[in-house]
Amino acid sequence: MKLSWYHILCVFRIIFTLFPQTGYIHPDEHFQGPEIVYGDIFNFKIHQAWEFTDEKPIRNIVFPYFITGLPSLLANFLGIKYLHGTFLFPYFMLSRSNSAVIFYKTYMPPRYVLGLTESQKDISIHDFAGVDEDNLKDLLNSLILQSKPQYVYAIIPNEMSIPIQNLSIFQTNYKFVARKCLFPHLSTESLPKLSEVINVILSKLSFWQKMTQIKKFLSIHVLIFKRNA
């Protein structure tokens, strides 16, 4: 019998189920417990399993809190709530119709990670990668003049936020609505300038002001524009 990837992965599944841990084979114990903790600490909307919500619960929340609660509290204190900021992008969308999502000088995840399906044709996603600013202007002009999206979401590193916001196509046709900063994020296509970070560290700002500025350098920024009426 010819082995397929399915059979190989099944063997790996059995090995990693039986040998590294001695708990239940069903993976619910690894997800439902931490999910309750993350919902409480990070204020995420979650689904509580019936084991915790029944009048006579069969599972205790103490152990998940003991195991994942302390690291989660530390992560929440540091502002680290997710590994990749764009995964939370759908929560910031003001409209899910007639919108353009632009990624520039940062990683563009697949549509399903953004919570978008192929059937949502009125939401277009564009990866402008690392094109230079002149080509970026031409691409944006072409996109906006042809499709005329109601909302434009520019997902960019920190240093590109001001240049993008000051583009003439946005100045004349759109109103700047909001900026969202998602920490942590480091784009290898647009690394923060070391000199700027050092200047902040050596400045006379307070400790918390320095931390706020450094977090801004290490964040992904979502600029939201709405088309003028």
UniProtKB/TrEMBL annotation:
Signal peptide coordinates: 1-25
The UniProt record lists the keyword Endoplasmic reticulum: yes
Keywords: Endoplasmic reticulum, Glycosyltransferase, Membrane, Signal, Transferase, Transmembrane, Transmembrane helix
Naturally occurring in which organism (per UniProt): Trichonephila inaurata madagascariensis
GO cellular component, one term: endoplasmic reticulum membrane
Protein name: Mannosyltransferase
InterPro entries per UniProt: GPI_mannosylTrfase (IPR005599)
Pfam families documented for this protein: Glyco_transf_22 (PF03901)
The keyword Signal belongs to this UniProt entry's keyword annotation: yes
